[in-house]
């Protein structure tokens, strides 16, 4: 009997298995193909806007994705580096061969984790409680908790034009029955779709016609524990490609042949990551669309044609690719396709990622309706932590919207649900100014430590960082300088002399003063990241305070608990849509209820009046 | 909210008719049980039905009962209104009859609250109902109707839409930084949008001052020495408008002695009993203090006699930097002029309360001073009350912060926080942002039984 069984070896499954094992529990990771563990079937990048912050959060909590990416990439870049601190985000171009290899190595180093190759087709459930899994050959594995991280492998169907195959992204076998079993247990199953573009032979590209996109000349790491281990000059470039009127004509002329537009697909695709067909149809007036050619690995030659995802038949794909400037003679190594798969309705989950329907069953990743490696890994980590905490008889770890993007992600899933593959965006986080990439460890590391995923050495590093920040803050407030003491950088930046004495703290508040100008006045030397955090804290103090005020308001509503046994049919005058949604979501508190779409402020007042006046009456009647 | 509630919805007192209004799921059934006439449970919705209210076989009153069925009613629930003969005794008896037949007395504002909670009206409209009932002049009635139909709601919604669009423009740039073909957002573009929003908000605030004027009227104080003609002016103004002279409490500040309307705007002649005698107050409490008293009015009419010189203190008072507008009325213009006004600013009207002359000029001066003729004929897109004005001011402050930050090249995700704030303040006006305390606050301000 395992404490935790994880079904699926993708990005969610790896984090879940690792998080379980790190808590000292007996864990099994069962995957249909060990060689596919931590596979990147779609784009090669890890991180990106919002997602890069999630990777840092995973690292802060003691997960794997950040530190594996740090030793497995071809290029790294800080996105939005010219914009403000809250929207900066790291992105790595992962090596699709090295990343899975390093991940497998990390998992194999865990003694209490068994990695088993098998296709799971059935669940053992007794009294609405999970007991184990059954493989397609009938072998049973029993467990206390189960985490399903099946990715796109529930009834996956690959679509290219009018043809389709029942298989996974690399032609692997797919689970034919598991989603039917889930439906039979009472889960609502929805069909989602995503897609991927062509892979191009790098030898056949005319690079002279393309713009080069280089990595940053500053080395970075996702992990708070690692120093950069790569040579910035050895990073692989990406290339910028544009569609043109000819490409669009080919697409328009063949629209009915595409799986999506020809009516061969039933799944719902993501709006924020549309196929090229969608882009051309929906944005008629745009004369061109931007694409990237990205290296996939140092160990095989493919270039990934990002932005050109399609489900056109292969002859049309040939024409489309050859219409692109620089790719006139390109050889397509792998054609683009759409993939459909089954997912559950995430409203059937609790914030711990345990299902409401079957006790001790957790789900994470694409099965919950999300897309993206980072979104999957973040959920896998939380599911793994919470399955472990459940086995150990402890309360689940639930991250709030003001604590982590992972918290925003899970709250959105269990409160709003999703009808299309869900992707994180910085705009989904209403408190993003305090959810920055630079403070993920300050926000979350203590939780990782409490759960057993962060060791003493890592924790000591956090305490040192906190101490340093407090130290610098105190100094900035204490030290006052005047015109005489100001260095040349300050004088130049200000353009005029100082009127009397001013504290470094107030000086730093001025837009033109950077913290590096003030380094010489500080008693110690500090790391660049630490100085930068302090700079943000001082410069944007007012806005941070504003955000914190909003957070307080939200937490106050979150404190107003809704009893678990509330009967929404007894709450008179709720709008029918609101009543339906409340019955489905069963929010834990008024704050969560107020975020449900279709539940209006008036419904919230009615609900609060009911809780205050009627609820106890109704309950006494029963 | 399944209780049946009722209340007397006309002012209690002697009048032609009174209305007892009731709402709730069993309204029609219950009223029918005390009604002799047609079977009310079978009549069509929105009909007026003649009959009698009976108690133990005895006729209480001859009435008309309007029946309005859910959902197309004010509260969204069934409504019955009993139009009975006026008079405290009859009306109260009918009310008591209802109360003994399963009705509960409505709490203040409860009808409107139900309308709001049933999604029939938004917050702005809910507040307008209160205003409509309190409206005493044609202008303020029109204004209240305008709100009820959602004009202000639409203006606010449009502004929120603009804010959302601006935000969306930001967000695309944050979340897709490498899509170079997206329209770029620069601080200059943001600044331009913000400035245009600021103008709209400020215009709304400006016109809302007029909105307050329409709603509350102008408070006018008439002061002068004893026997200078103040009472004559007051009586003359009031006499002409006897029909609407009331003795009600003023909306905000002082006791109103009487009201007249000029161009549809209510003019409250406030009781200046304590401060009528300028020479007296100025001598006793000094210029500073008298100014404070006078500031409670929107307009002060100083009345002087043509044949008397100003005392130094009066001169001082007139020359002080006034927040309040003033008109100087020089009475007894047939007597030899001794008054000297060379160094005194302000509009001067000459007249004679005995003849009487100059009083129409005085009215014209008031109209011109406040552009009353224009206000009355304009659109009525004004904010209804202090709460709404405060929220628009807050929204404007947030936009001003955003402008300031944008000018200082502060990163746009900070500016987004200000924009969000403005968005939420505007949302509060139409009830689109949820705030705990808000509902209780608003609904507690309603009078009984609307």
Sum up the structure in keywords.
heterodimer; A: 622 residues; alpha+beta; FAD/NAD(P)-binding domain; Arc Repressor Mutant, subunit A; 19 helices; 17% strand; B: 450 residues; alpha/beta; Gyrase A, domain 2; Four Helix Bundle (Hemerythrin (Met), subunit A); Rossmann fold; 3 domains; seven-stranded mixed beta sheet
Describe the structure.
The complex is a heterodimer of chains A (622) and B (450). Chain A has 19 helices and 22 strands. With 622 residues, chain A is α+β, with helices and mostly antiparallel strands. Chain A has four domains: 2-192 and 342-450, FAD/NAD(P)-binding domain; 199-339, Beta Barrel (Elongation Factor Tu (Ef-tu), domain 3), CATH 2.40.30; 464-546, Orthogonal Bundle (Arc Repressor Mutant, subunit A), CATH 1.10.10; 560-621, GidA associated domain, C-terminal subdomain (DNA polymerase, domain 1, Orthogonal Bundle), CATH 1.10.150.570. With 450 residues, chain B is α/β, with parallel strands linked by helices. Helix content of chain B is 46%, strand content 18%. The longest helix of chain B is centred in the middle third of the chain and has 30 residues, at 187-216. The two termini of chain B are 17 Å apart. The chains are: A alpha+beta (622), B alpha/beta (450). At the A-B interface, helix 16 and helix 19 of A face helix 6 and helix 14 of B.
């Amino acid at each position: 009997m395992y404490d935790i069984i994880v079904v699926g070896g993708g990005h969610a499954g790896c984090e879940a298995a690792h998080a379980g094992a790190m808590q000292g529990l007996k864990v099994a990771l069962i995957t249909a193909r060990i060689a596919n563990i931590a596979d990147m079937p779609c784009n090669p990048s890890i991180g990106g806007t919002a997602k890069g912050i999630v990777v840092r959060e995973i690292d802060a909590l003691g997960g794997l994705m950040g530190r594996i990416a740090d030793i497995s990439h071809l290029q790294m870049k800080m996105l939005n580096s010219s914009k403000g601190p809250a929207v900066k985000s790291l992105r790595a171009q992962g090596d699709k061969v090295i990343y899975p290899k390093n991940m497998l190595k990390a998992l194999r180093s865990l003694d209490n984790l068994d990695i088993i190759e098998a296709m799971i087709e059935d669940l053992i459930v007794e009294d609405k409680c999970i007991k184990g899994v059954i493989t397609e050959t009938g072998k049973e594995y029993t467990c206390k908790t189960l985490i399903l991280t099946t990715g796109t492998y529930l009834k996956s169907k690959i679509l290219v034009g009018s043809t389709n195959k029942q298989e996974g992204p690399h032609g692997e076998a797919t689970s034919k029955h598991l989603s039917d079993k889930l439906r039979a247990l009472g889960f609502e199953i929805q069909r989602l779709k995503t897609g991927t573009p062509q892979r191009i032979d790098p030898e056949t590209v005319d690079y002279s016609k393309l713009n080069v996109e280089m990595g940053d000349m500053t080395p970075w790491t996702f992990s708070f524990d690692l120093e950069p281990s790569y040579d910035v000059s050895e990073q692989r470039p990406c290339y910028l490609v544009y569609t043109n009127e000819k490409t669009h004509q080919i697409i328009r002329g063949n629209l009915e042949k595409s799986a999506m537009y020809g009516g061969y697909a039933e799944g719902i695709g993501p709006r924020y990551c549309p196929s090229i067909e969608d882009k051309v149809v929906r944005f008629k007036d745009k004369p061109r669309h931007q694409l990237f050619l990205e290296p996939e690995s140092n160990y095989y030659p493919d270039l990934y044609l990002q932005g050109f995802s399609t489900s056109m038949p292969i002859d049309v794909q040939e024409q489309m690719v050859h219409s692109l400037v620089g790719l006139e003679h390109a050889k397509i190594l792998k054609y683009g396709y759409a993939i459909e798969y089954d997912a559950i309705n995430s409203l059937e989950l609790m914030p711990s990622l345990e299902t409401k329907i079957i006790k001790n069953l957790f789900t994470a990743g694409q099965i919950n309706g999300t897309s993206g490696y980072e979104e999957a890994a973040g959920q896998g980590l939380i599911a793994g932590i919470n399955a472990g905490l459940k086995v150990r008889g402890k309360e689940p770890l639930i991250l709030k919207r003001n604590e982590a993007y992972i918290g925003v992600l899970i709250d959105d899933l269990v409160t709003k649900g999703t009808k299309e593959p869900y992707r994180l965006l910085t705009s989904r986080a209403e408190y993003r100014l305090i959810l920055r990439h630079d403070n993920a460890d300050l926000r979350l590391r203590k939780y990782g430590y409490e759960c057993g995923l962060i060791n003493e050495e890592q924790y000591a590093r956090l305490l040192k960082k906190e101490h340093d920040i407090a130290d610098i803050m105190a100094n900035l407030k204490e030290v006052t300088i005047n015109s005489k003491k100001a260095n040349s950088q300050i004088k130049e930046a200000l353009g005029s002399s100082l009127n009397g004495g001013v504290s470094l703290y107030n000086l730093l508040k001025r837009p033109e003063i950077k913290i590096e100008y003030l380094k010489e006045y500080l008693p110690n030397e500090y790391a660049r990241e630490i100085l930068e955090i302090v700079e943000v804290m001082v410069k944007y103090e007012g806005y941070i305070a504003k955000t914190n005020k909003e957070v307080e308001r939200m937490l106050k509503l979150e404190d107003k608990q809704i009893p678990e046994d509330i009967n929404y049919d007894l709450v008179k005058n709720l709008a029918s849509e609101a009543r339906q949604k409340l019955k489905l979501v069963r929010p834990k508190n008024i704050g969560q209820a107020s975020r449900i779409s279709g539940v209006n402020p008036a419904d919230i007042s009615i609900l609060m009046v009911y809780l205050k006046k009627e609820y106890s009456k109704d309950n006494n009647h029963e | 909210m399944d209780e049946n509630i009722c209340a007397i919805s006309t002012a209690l007192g002697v009048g032609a008719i009174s209305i007892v209004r009731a709402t709730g799921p069993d309204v029609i059934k219950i009223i029918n049980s005390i009604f002799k006439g047609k079977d009310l449970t079978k009549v069509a919705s929105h009909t007026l039905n003649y009959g009698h209210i009976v108690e133990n076989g005895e006729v209480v009153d001859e009435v008309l009962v309007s029946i309005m069925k859910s959902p197309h009613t004010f509260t969204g629930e069934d409504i019955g209104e009993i139009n009975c003969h006026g008079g405290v005794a009859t009306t109260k008896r009918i009310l008591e009859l209802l109360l003994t037949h399963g009705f509960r007395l409505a709490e203040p504002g409860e009808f409107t609250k139900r309308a709001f909670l049933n999604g029939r009206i938004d917050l702005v409209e809910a507040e307008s109902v209160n205003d409509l009932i309190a409206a005493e002049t044609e202008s303020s009635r029109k204004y209240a109707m305008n709100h009820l139909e959602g004009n202000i709601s639409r203006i606010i919604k449009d502004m929120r839409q603009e804010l959302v669009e601006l935000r969306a423009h930001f967000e695309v740039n944050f979340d897709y930084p490498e899509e170079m073909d997206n329209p770029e957002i620069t601080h200059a573009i943001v600044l331009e949008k913000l400035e245009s929003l600021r103008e709209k908000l400020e215009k709304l605030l400006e016109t809302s001052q007029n909105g307050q004027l329409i709603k509350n009227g102008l408070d006018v104080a008439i002061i002068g020495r004893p026997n200078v003609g103040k009472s004559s002016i007051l009586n003359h103004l009031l006499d002409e408008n006897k029909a609407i002279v009331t003795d009600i409490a003023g909306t905000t500040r002082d006791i109103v002695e009487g009201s007249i309307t000029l161009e549809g705007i209510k003019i409250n002649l406030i009781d200046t009993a304590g401060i009528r005698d300028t020479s007296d107050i100025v001598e006793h409490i000094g210029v500073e203090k008298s100014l404070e008293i006078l500031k409670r009015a929107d307009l002060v009419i100083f009345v002087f006699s043509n044949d008397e010189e100003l005392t130094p203190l009066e001169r001082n008072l007139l020359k002080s930097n006034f927040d309040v507008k003033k008109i100087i009325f020089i009475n007894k213009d047939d007597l030899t002029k001794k008054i000297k006004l060379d160094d005194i600013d302000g509009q001067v009207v000459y007249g004679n309360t005995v003849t009487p002359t100059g009083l129409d000029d005085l009215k014209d001066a008031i109209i011109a001073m406040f552009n009353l003729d224009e206000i009355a004929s304009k659109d009525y897109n004004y904010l209804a009350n202090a709460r709404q004005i405060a929220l628009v001011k807050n929204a404007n402050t947030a936009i001003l912060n955003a402008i300031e930050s944008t000018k200082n090249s502060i990163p746009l995700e900070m500016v987004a926080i200000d924009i969000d704030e403005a968005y939420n303040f505007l949302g509060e006006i139409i009830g689109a942002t949820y705030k705990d305390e808000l509902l209780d606050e608003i609904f507690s301000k309603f009078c009984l039984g609307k």
